[in-house]
Amino acid sequence: MKKMTAFCLALGMMASLLAGCSQGAASSSASTSAATESTATAEESTGAITSTELNIVYSGTPEVHEKEYLMNDYFKGFEEEYGVTVNVDFVPQADAITKVQTEQETGNIVSDILYVDTANMAPYINGGWMEDICLFSKDTFQG
């Protein structure tokens, strides 16, 4: 189960990067050096993703050892491999729903990935706010 959760998180992160969920944060991160500016300008002109941060809302309260694994092993490895910073907001389920609602209502979408109980997510799924990652993972778990 942990491997499946880890895979889904990684897949969600990659899908999020590919889908460009954080297009708003891209322009602010491209001013640190001439090389970065040049790269960012080239990426922006081609429509490539330029954000270096990935914001995850993780609902529920994982056990301490699970949280430590996610933060110290899993996300650190992802950050090193893909050159991004992973920000994780561990929140109770009710707060995750409120966070999504607020982002939708204000148009200020900052969460790239949601790891939540799907019971309350039907309005967001049906409203086109969620991406089905099955297309990205269909070949991964075939026997």
UniProtKB/TrEMBL annotation:
Endpoints of the signal sequence: 1-19
UniProt cross-references to SUPFAM superfamilies, sorted A to Z: Periplasmic binding protein-like II (SSF53850)
Coiled coil start-end: none
UniProt keyword terms in alphabetical order: Signal
Pfam families recorded: SBP_bac_1
Protein name: Extracellular solute-binding protein
Species annotation: Candidatus Gemmiger excrementavium
The organism's taxonomic lineage, starting at the top: Bacteria, Bacillati, Bacillota, Clostridia, Eubacteriales
